Amino acid sequence: MFSYLGRKTKESFFSTISESMVTCKSTDVDTCRDDSAAFILKFVAIASILIAGVVGIAIPLVGKHRRILRTDGSLFVAAKAFAAGVILATGFVHMLSGGSKALTDPCLPKFPWSKFPFSGFFAMMASLLTLLVDFVGTQYYEKKQGMTRTSEEQGRVGSLDANADADSESGIVPIVENKERNGKVFGEEEGGGMHIVGMHAHAAHHRHSHPNGQDACDGHAKDLAHAHSHGHGHGHSHGFADGDAESGIRHVVVSQVLELGIVSHSIIIGISLGVSHSPCTIRPLIAALSFHQFFEGFALGGCISQAQFKIRSATIMACFFAITTPLGIGIGTAIASVYNPNSSGALIVEGILDSMSAGILVYMALVDLIAADFLSKRMSCNFRLQVVSYFMLFLGAGLMSLLAIWA
């Protein structure tokens, strides 16, 4: 009896595997198939999407040195809000619905794909994993930044001690750093080597005071004016203050995780376009994906610009983003003759990757792009910027959602 049950279980297992490998023919009749026209349109798509991606990511990287497109300017914040809306709609409307459609396709076995909402589950798990990566990455860079700062301070103390020894030999006694009666660190407003210590004390002072209401906005304006005067009043670089270092670390992690999410779904949409034989499908995709690539590039370029990467690292990240979708189109074109998007394996892979990409993009849009800007003191203290940013956010999300009609 046990041998009979074992044999039946084995047969059931192998029958399930064989069913999952069966190629299912699409119920839709492709009346617009034209291989030669589709082949030409794919090259048009590669060129258009590549140009859109390069221009989109280059604007914030090149324009950060221009006054009108500086990353701390209101125009940049509003444009970034529009791009955040585009990414949010991409995750919810395009990627999540695409993953759900693929994983509930009639070509897949009813068990287990029709018995559980796998698309939402994979999106949720991808969001939680993105949170974990976000946290671990931030901790890593904070620790790295702290070690770098400690070594720099030790070197600075060593040089001060050496200077003190030399001065003592010549009969000159250095002034020891102390606090004045008003609580200010001596040397905070003076130049010279002690100014670094003053900047750290100044940042710590503002970080531990939390005024409310109009006082908070007034203090924010004074901080901006103070930072601006320091930036123009000193020819040498002071490096990051503590608050700036924390913000820079966040931007480093955000830019890398965001690029991971964008790249993962860019490959999928590129392959989907590349394997198509229908000009009627490819034409609207060219416009939709070019628009999509431009504003995704703008959002990513803004994060890279704010992270203050070195030119080489920023260029590598920009190029990697720009070529991903065209590369996916090239791969799809090369395998179009043997690839069947309606096979069970293709549907499962596409559905899982689309759902996970949706989770990553939704997390990044809500947490690291929208919340980071819209809950900031700068936004709360500028009513005009609030109105413009919310309008741009809803406009970007609405226009990208509207593209779902064609793509």
Can you put this structure into words, describing what you see?
The chain crosses the membrane at residues 39-63, 75-96, 116-137, 314-336, 356-375, 387-406. It is found in: Membrane. InterPro entries: ZIP (IPR003689), Zn/Fe_permease_fun/pln (IPR004698). By secondary structure, this protein is an all-alpha fold. It has a domain at 32-142 and 242-405. The chain contains 13 helices and no strands. The protein has helices at residues 2-20, 35-63, 74-103, 110-113, 118-169, 195-207, 213-233, 242-274, 279-307, 311-334, 344-374, 377-380, 383-402. Helix 3 (74-103) packs across helix 9 (279-307), helix 3 packs parallel to helix 13 and helix 9 packs antiparallel against helix 10 (311-334).
Low-pLDDT residue intervals, each spanning 5 or more residues: 13-22, 175-210, 227-242
Mean pLDDT: 76
Note the overall shape: globular
Helix content class: over 70%
Strand percentage: under 5%
Number of strands: 0
The chain-level structural class is mainly alpha
Radius of gyration: 28 Å
Describe the largest sheet: none
Distance between the termini: 55 Å
What are the secondary-structure elements, in order, as H or E?
Answer: HHHHHHHHHHHHH
Tally of helical runs: 13
Task: Describe the structure concisely for a colleague.
The protein is an all-alpha fold and 407 residues long.
